[in-house]
Fold each of these.
Amino acid sequence: MAILIFLLTFLVVASLIFGVWLFAGADGAQEQIRKRMNAVRKAERRGDVSQSLKLVRDEMLSSVPLIHRMMLQWSWSSKFQEFLSQAGLRTKPAKILLLSAVMGVGSNLLAGLFFRKEYISVPIGFAVTAIPFLAVAWKRRRRFRQFEERFPEALDLLGRAVRAGHAFTTGVEMIAKECAEPLAGEFRTTFEEQNFG
């Protein structure tokens, strides 16, 4: 009986969220966003995406505008996006949150069907909900370790480039081209942002 109540509650909440999402898609701002996104996709197919378009698109917290606007109001969402980028992931924060919620609810339902005891299924659901966050934290820690190991090599390359008469920005670009990841990606981002202004 508890599983049936849980399923009905989940379906009602999901239906409400879907209804709000559909209702929010009817306003004029949504149409304007849709036109802009179509322009970005057309430019991407032609291969002439400007740096400004890439930067704007990469800062979206969700590909659904309503969820993006909701997440902008939460102070932790920008920190979570930074956490994901430090892990080297280009996944949007809303996708990780959705994956975590689906995994947690699914495992809770499966554990409820097998064990038929809520005091077992609820902790299992919470534990499985944490798996995507733990995976991101593990990737972030591993990427930081790789960066720290290779950073002296990048400084040496930068020093040699400046001593040879190259500009500092040219040295940063050389690191982006010649070093391995994650150094190359971070220095490439630094170089591109500096060029962008």
Amino acid sequence: MANTKIPVELSSTPGIVDNSNATAITIDSSENVGIGTSSPRTNLHIGSGSTGNQLGLLISRGATTNFLVCNDGTKEAYIGTDVGNAYVKLGSLSNHPVAISQSNVVAMYIDTSRNVGIGTSSPTVQLDVYSSTLQSEVKISNSGTGNTASDGFGLLNNGSTAYVWNYEAGVLLFGTSNAERMRIHSNGAVSIGSTSNLGVLGVKQLSASSTTFALYNDSSSRKWFYLPNAYYGYQGVEEIHANGGVNRYFDNASGTSVGSIVVNAGSTAFNTTSDYRLKDNPQPLTGSGEFIDALQPKTWTWNHGDGGTGVGFIAHEAAEVGLGLCVSGEKDATRIDKVLNEETGEYTEQTVPSYQQLDYSNGELIANMVAELKSLRARIADLENQ
């Protein structure tokens, strides 16, 4: 291969001339280098004599060629590689400021309003992420790879529903002051004040004396519903603020109203449905004497809570009298439940008693007492008239 001789022009502005005796490279007195121009304006100035011609700087190594191309006609610059057609496109303020492409497809774009588009060249907001599939995802992470607790959180849009979640087992966390306050578990359950899954919606007090739940009216002057803590950690006091009219309705599974709570200025009434239109074949009550005689009124000392003396009936004994409508549950029944371990703060499954309950306001008790009282009054009247 023959050597190529490059003539050097020695003058006050030295340079290298081409084979046509024209200056190809100019070095001025400020040591600025001009290629294609005899008046370099910076350390390295590549120029072209005609508008619209591409000006390029080509740097290659091995099979990969890195390049910088500037087109003076459209005032756009490209920085990238000719392998895979990946490049960064820089334009004028009147054109497209920044575009990053891979395989000639725009991967990121910044428009003249400084909106950033990822996967789109037409961002409509400050950060616009687009995917041609039905699922687009953004992950904000402080670790390398893997779905771990340190992987921050992600944003997902599956085409119809948007999600925000933490990568820790798919749990979404909410917090303040570097502390967790609420989480949505992977099964959709919501826990407030606790990291444990307490059910579909679980709320745990912040402290033993803090309010658990409260709803106020629009002026924040009256409480519609209020559930504060009482004197002990196991107790709660429910306050329902109303004044006149029905505060709560109770419906059965078919939607029929079966009761209500009415709160007035000085009293509360607990009502159960007794409309004649819901009853077939009403008959006078008989056998009230046998019913009263079979009841076993008793007194006792409670063996739980604060203790104290109780007066009334034993549930399973009352269930054996009449129809037993005043008692719910079965004698000696048990169930599996989660019980709080006060030392560990965790809930564990245990077999616990399923206690029977007795409704002292039940109609069977009241009706038999009234029927027997009427019978006694009638017999007394007969005796008085003799």
